[in-house]
Design goal:
Elements lengths: L5 E3 L6 H14 L15 H12 L11 E7 L5 E8 L4 H7 L2 E5 L8 H15 L4 E7 L3 H9 L3 E2 L3 E2 L5 E8 L1
Antiparallel strand pairs: 1-2, 2-3, 3-4, 5-8, 6-8, 7-8
Amino acid sequence: MKSDVYLTRPTMELETEYLSFYREWKESGEDMIPWVISKDPSNFKEMIQFLLDSENGINLPENWVPDSTFWLVNDDKKVFGAVNIRHRLTDKLFNSGGHIGYGIRPSERRKGYASKLLSLSLEKAKELGIQKVLVVCDKGNTGSEKTILNNGGEADSDYIEEAGNIIKRFWIKI
């Protein structure tokens, strides 16, 4: 992995690269994580505005909290991943969502980008005034679990969703 990746706010200038990222993920058939990347980007300007509004707490659905979205890019503007940072926790986020949701495009996994993305995300969370971050992953997602542990994650009790899926919960002090 090259060290020239960094976080940037969603912007119109990255439309072509983001659409490539989005299409690759859609074609993989995998769940799109974090949830914001599943938002239809066909009206790119509208999607960017939605993300900015969410960060500023504008037009939020009931029981939602403001959140900040960043894209992991390199100097060539290739989009490697995305992160969504919730500014505070609701009961649902406390159990199964956490403060930070992140994902790396399928073709760039197992190259160290997830660990870098989480590390940079922790810096952004600190800037938002969050001192103790909750990060979660599904039981059995060993890649995510290792990434969280490598970034200082301390295991908390698991949460079992209604459908029986087990969510592993970790706290990271920043």
